[in-house]
Amino acid sequence: MGGLREALDAHVRRLAGTSLSALIAADPERAQAFALRCGPLYVNFARQRYDRAALDALFAIAERADLAGALRRLLEGDIVNPTEARPALHSALRGAVAQSAFALAARAQAVSVQLRMRELVQALAASPVTDIVSIGIGGSDLGPRLVVDALAQPQARFRVHFLSNVDGHAAQRVLAGLDPARTAAVMISKTFTTQETLLNGGIVRDWLGDAERMYAVTAYPQRAEAFGIAPERVLPMWDWVGGRYSLWSAVGFPIALALGMERFEALLEGAAALDAHALQAPLRENLPVWHALTAVWNRNGLQAATQAVLPYDERLRLLPAYLQQLVMESLGKSVRIDGASVAVDTAPVWWGGAGTDTQHSFFQALHQGTQVVPADFIGVRQAAHGFEVNHAALLANLLAQTEALANGQDSEDPHRRYPGNRPSTLLLLDALTPQALGMLIAFYEHSVYLQAVLWQINAFDQFGVELGKQLASRLLPALQGQGQADDPVTQALLEVLRTGE
Ligand code: F6P
Predict the structure, then answer these.
(1) Which residue's alpha carbon is at the smallest distance from atom 16 of ligand 1?
(2) Whose CA is nearest to atom 8 of ligand 1?
(3) What is the pLDDT of residues 145-168, one digit of tens each?
């Protein structure tokens, strides 16, 4: 968007000398006025370093960039991924929020695959299988892994294990302790060409003895069949589902196995409710719009190079890893859709971990380091355990950290001084239900898309990951003693790897 930096600069300069605590003192209504709710998801932006005038400027940017139209185009199935000439219709996997012919046709395909998923879950439940190995990587792993880790219950019908890394130690660890006679495997790969997944699939097929209890999820069923997986155990996906937006599709099969189909559907319902909110809520009441504008303010206004995500809930410990892919594979671009270089910085580095553990590792740098790191703190009001004091302590720590980062504390001793003025957003879920988690993930998906619209980049391609993959497949034979590397440094390093010298 032309003039994004210029539109922010005047406000950044105006507010440069005003601390976050002064902003809050000057506007006592902020705690309520800068907060939004959508069902079980409450988000408070009062501890961001903008005031109402700066927010007006941000919402004017949102109007000029037509974020409302951009959301409509996404949900209706327009080609929002022009470099690959595709829509990105993950919303059609979870509901019928848009009524365009394409979105409705996609919805019908999604529903028919959900019926097949249900049958496969039932058939497996009636079998002696107790353990499932889910084999996939990136978008074919991180979403199911997050949701299963967050929501699976100890009494679940199946234990689901995840195998992603090509490092054979990963396969060794996952398979140790499993019984091949009571294990089934699901290979998840949109392309069914991903090296890691094919190699790990081969290891598991050998370990199982054959592919009789192997399932696949892919947009290329014939490739799964060529691997030996029978067509009745192959679930389709489509090119209008991006890998990192795919947990709502049959990629969520491990979720359905771990949680049961009803709770998988509840996850979809939560995401669909957020889709409806994103489509219908006016810009100023629109959660993903507000979050995306805040991201742009912090990145382009305050020049923050990184962004922390800090779930204060052990069950959400994998959320930072999930969001790293969602944000950085979607927004780590320096070329605009029109082919020109971007004029402003795009995705910051996203990182984080679960509180309170992280308080005892990297929070020192958050409080007193030279870099200001905006943070998303995520809490859950009601715990699903009976350790009440622990839960109160967890929430007390969550609140304490956001307050300490914002307000700081002065001291005569420079070593003991907390500068404060460090922005954060607080996200609260009423309880960690499948609906609430679905809503939270969809909220981030739409925020990421809107940031891409504001930066005029394509959120849905990822050409940056291809070169490394191509080089790795060329170097594999060289490492096995056949051929040489083109690059002299790589060739020298190959020698070291092969001979130790
Ligand atoms: O890492 C790049 C990537 O293409 C991701 O976008 C994708 O989720 C992952 O690889 C796995 O791809 P596939 O599902 O085709 O195996």
Answers:
(1) 189
(2) 139
(3) 999 999 999 999 999 999 999 999
